[in-house]
């Protein structure tokens, strides 16, 4: 059948449209996967059930009707006979809970959504201090941990137990004392079999290697193994930051307005990414006033937090300014013991966000010190 020129043109346009839409759909599909596959907490060291340094297990209270960390078939008087909840399938409960969690962590509402953990007292920490910077905000308040940083330290200070949960798995596992009281402890009786765990179910403390003991100088996290990185399965050197934070990057401190190296950030930070001034939302850190260096995925962006409720535009540096605790870290962390690794997982075992500088490396987030230079103008 013969086609007239107009019909041929129409047919060609239709085929071209279908082809273009197909290409766009495929591109969007892979772009969607790449964008949304980065956060996969099951394949990180924060999956405490498969982390070989911690290996969280079930509770050890076999008394029928008693308070257990996991209600299951071992306690049929309370929960029935459906079986114990496997921790590998409930990764999130070690930090979050859908009901009964803390809504105000360290004085900052919403900083750590539905937080499910006991906290240490902010006054228990010794903050960073030096002649060049004193870890204080503009009101003269010492930069003691608050908000999202205090939430991170509820595991990483080595004082609060890994299982210091407010709301445990299953029905009836509510521990109000971990919501009401702060300070060391809070264990609800779960089992841990990893070498990073001490007798109080918290992070073991590291130590300095001693030449008198025939050891090479340096930091040894697991003194029980006594052989440093090769025996620690990747948890060292500093998962346990302790309560003395003087040897760590300052947190819960306001970006200093009087220091010229931060002037470019402070000029545009309150409205970056469409943020409404006074909203108390997170702020993106980027030296380009047009946001040219901001990663497309907001979860990758280096950020400042509104940690002072009375000053919602004051930008504070917190642990989560540079670290994303949900960022998939395989390959690069310990081997996953659950289902196969996501194909789009990046090598990010340090949970680093992506540098707000030109040409960041997604596989080596601090290559050329770009994360450091995203804030510090050196």
Task: Reconstruct the topology from this structure.
Elements: H1 5-36, E1 56-59, E2 104-105, E3 108-109, H2 147-156, H3 177-180, E4 190-192, E5 207-208, E6 219-220, H4 229-232, E7 253-254, H5 263-268, E8 283-284, E9 303-304, E10 316-317, H6 319-322, H7 370-375
Antiparallel strand pairs: 1-4, 2-3, 5-6, 7-10, 8-9
InterPro entries: Multihaem_cyt_sf (IPR036280)
Protein name: Cytochrome c family protein
Organism: hydrothermal vent metagenome
Q: What would you say this structure looks like, in words?
A:
The protein has seven helices and ten strands. The relative contact order is 0.14. The model is unreliable at 17-37, 60-88, 222-235 and 331-336 (pLDDT under 50). It is globular and about 50 Å long. Helix content is 17%, strand content 6%. This is Cytochrome c family protein. InterPro entries: Multihaem_cyt_sf.
CA radius of gyration: 24 Å
Could you name the ranges where pLDDT drops below 50 across 5 or more consecutive residues? 17-37, 60-88, 222-235, 331-336
N-end to C-end Cα span: 72 Å
Number of helices: 7
Helix content: 10-25%
Strand elements, count: 10
Average pLDDT, to the nearest integer? Answer: 74
Percent of residues in beta strands: 5-15%
The computed structural class is: alpha+beta
Descriptive tags:
single chain; 378 residues; two-stranded antiparallel ribbon; 10 strands; alpha+beta; 7 helices
Would you summarize the structure shown here?
InterPro entries: Multihaem_cyt_sf (IPR036280). It contains 7 helices and 10 strands.
């Amino acid at each position: 059948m013969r086609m007239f020129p107009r019909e041929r043109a129409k047919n060609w346009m239709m085929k071209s449209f279908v082809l273009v839409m197909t290409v766009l759909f495929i591109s969007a599909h892979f772009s969607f996967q790449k964008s949304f596959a980065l956060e996969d907490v099951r394949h990180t060291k924060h999956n405490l059930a498969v982390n070989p340094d911690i290996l969280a297990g079930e509770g050890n209270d076999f008394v029928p009707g008693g308070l257990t960390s996991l209600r299951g078939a071992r306690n049929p008087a309370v929960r029935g006979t459906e079986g114990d909840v496997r921790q590998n399938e409930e990764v999130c409960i070690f930090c979050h809970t859908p009901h009964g969690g803390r809504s105000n962590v360290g004085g900052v509402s919403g900083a750590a959504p539905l937080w499910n953990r006991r906290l240490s007292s902010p006054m228990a920490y010794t903050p960073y201090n030096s002649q060049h910077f004193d870890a204080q905000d503009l009101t003269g308040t010492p930069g003691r941990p608050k908000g999202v940083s205090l939430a991170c330290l509820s595991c990483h200070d080595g004082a609060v137990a890994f299982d210091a949960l407010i709301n445990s798995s299953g029905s009836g596992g509510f521990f109000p004392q971990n919501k009401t009281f702060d300070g060391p402890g809070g264990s609800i009786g779960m089992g841990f079999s990893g070498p990073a765990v001490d007798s109080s179910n918290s992070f073991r403390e590291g130590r300095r290697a001693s030449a008198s003991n025939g050891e090479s100088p340096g930091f040894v996290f697991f003194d029980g193994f006594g052989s440093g990185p090769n025996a620690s399965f990747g948890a060292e050197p500093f998962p346990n930051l302790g309560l003395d934070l003087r040897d760590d990057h300052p947190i819960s401190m306001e970006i200093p307005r009087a220091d010229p190296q931060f002037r470019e950030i402070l000029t545009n930070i309150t409205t970056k990414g469409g943020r409404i001034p006074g909203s108390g939302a997170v702020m993106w850190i980027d030296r380009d006033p047009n946001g040219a260096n901001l990663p497309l995925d907001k979860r990758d962006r280096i950020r400042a937090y509104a940690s002072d409720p009375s000053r919602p535009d004051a930008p504070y540096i917190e642990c989560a300014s540079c670290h994303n605790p949900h960022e998939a870290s395989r390959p690069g962390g310990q081997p996953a013991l659950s289902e196969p690794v996501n194909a789009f997982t990046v090598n990010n075992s340090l949970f680093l966000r992506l540098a707000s500088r030109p040409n960041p490396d997604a596989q080596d987030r601090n290559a050329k010190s770009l994360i450091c230079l995203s804030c510090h103008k050196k």
